[in-house]
Amino acid sequence: MQDRNENFVSIFPPHALLYQETVRRALLEDLGNAGDITTDALVSKDDKVTAKIVARASGRVAGLDVAACAFHCLDPNLIFETHLSDGQDARPGDTLAVIRGHARPILTAERTALNFLMRLSGVATATRDMVKLISSYPARIVCTRKTTPGLRALEKYAVRVGGGANHRFGLDDAILIKDNHIIVAGGVTEAIRRVQKCAGHLVKIEVEVDTLEQLEEALQEGVDAILLDNMPIKMLAEAVQRAKGKAITEASGGVTPENVCLIAATGVDLISIGWITHSTPALNLALELAVTA
Q1: Ranges of H-type helices in the chain
Q2: 49 with 151: CB under 8 angstroms?
Q3: 3-state DSSP: the chain helix, strand, coil percent, rounded to 5?
Q4: CB 3.0-4.6 Å disulfide test: which of 1, 47, 86, 194 passes with 103?
Q5: Is 289 in contact with 39 (CB distance < 8 Å)?
C-alpha cells in the first residue's frame, strides 16, 4: 500500500485526521501480507474503470469522505466524484459517488470503502427515523458509548448526520455516576459528594437514578443532569416535572420506535439510545463497475 503521508493534507480535509489511520488499518486487515492476490492475478496494472456506488435501499447517506479515503489510500490519483452529500437521503438506484481511475486500487479498496459507508449510513438512517418520530416534541435523540471499538468518532458523526446529538465521547468528557458507582459509594448522595470534590469547574456531573427517591437525593446535591433509567412512563413524567428547572433530564433504557413518542411526551430533554450505534443494520449499497478505454 502506497504511503501517502506527504500529500495527505492536499487531498483530505482536516477532519480526516480523525479517521485516516482507522481506514488504513481496515485496509491492512484486508490486504494481509500478500495483498489482493485475486485482483493482482486478473487485472493489469494499466486497466482503467469507472465505478459507481449505488443505493439498493432507501436511507440517509453518511461517510462519503471515509469511503473516498479508502480509495485514495491505495491511489491518491483516483477521481472520487460525489453525486450526493452526507446528510442527504438516497433512494434505491441513486448514485452516491463515481470513482474513475486504475482498476486495481478500486477493486482492492471496494469492500473496505463500502463497509464504512454502509455502516455509517445505517447509523445515520436509524437516527433520522427516530428523530422524525419525535419531531413535534422538544426532546433530542442522543447516542451513547455503545459503539463499535475503533469507530466511535465515525459512528457519533453518523448520529449527527442523522439529526441526533452526541452524548459524551469517552470517560474523560464528563462525570456520569451510574448504578454500579452508586453501589460502590454506598448511595447517591455519597457518590455525588465524592465526585464534586474532584471535578474541575468545567466538568459536568450527571447521575443515573431509577427511583423517585434517588432523584430527590440527586436534586438536593445539585447536579447538572439526571439520567432517568428504565422508568415506566408515568414515573418518568413525574420525574421530569420534579427536575424541571433544576437539571437536564435524560431518558434511557428500552427506547424503541413504538414507545419513543410516549417518552418524548413526558417533556424529557434527551432520549439516549444505544442500539442506533451498536446494532442498526447497514444500508445496502453496491459498487457497479464498467471498463473504460
Answers
A1: 8-11, 20-31, 37-42, 64-74, 103-133, 152-161, 179-185, 188-198, 212-221, 233-243, 260-264, 275-278
A2: no
A3: 45, 20, 35
A4: 47
A5: no
Report the distance separating Cα 277 and Cα 254, nearest Å: 15
Identify residue 190 by its one-letter amino acid code.
Answer: E
Cα–Cα nearest to 111, from 26, 11, 4: 26
Q: Is the pLDDT of residue 118 over 80?
A: yes
Residue the block writes with cell 455502516 = 119
Residues 170 and 210 in one domain: yes
CATH of the domain at 47: 3.90.1170.20
CA 169 to chain centre: 10
Q: What is the DSSP letter of 165?
A: B
Enzyme catalytic residues: 111, 146, 178, 208, 229
- Give mean pLDDT, residues 106-120: 98
Domain residues for the domain of 23 are: 5-124+281-292
Split into its structural domains, the chain has a count of: 2
Q: What is the pLDDT of residues 14-38, one digit of tens each?
A: 577 789 999 999 999 999 999 999 9
pLDDT, residue 284, reads 98
Q: Per residue in 191-214, pLDDT tens?
A: 999 999 999 999 999 999 999 999
CA torsion through residues 277, 252, 135, 248, sign = negative
pTM score of the predicted model: 0.91
pLDDT surpasses 60 at 263 = yes
The grid cell for 55 is 443505493
Residue with cell 428500552: 254
pLDDT at 15: 74
Taking residues 250-270, what's their average pLDDT? 97
Q: What is the pLDDT of residues 205-253, one digit of tens each?
A: 999 999 999 999 999 999 999 999 999 999 999 999 999 999 999 999 9
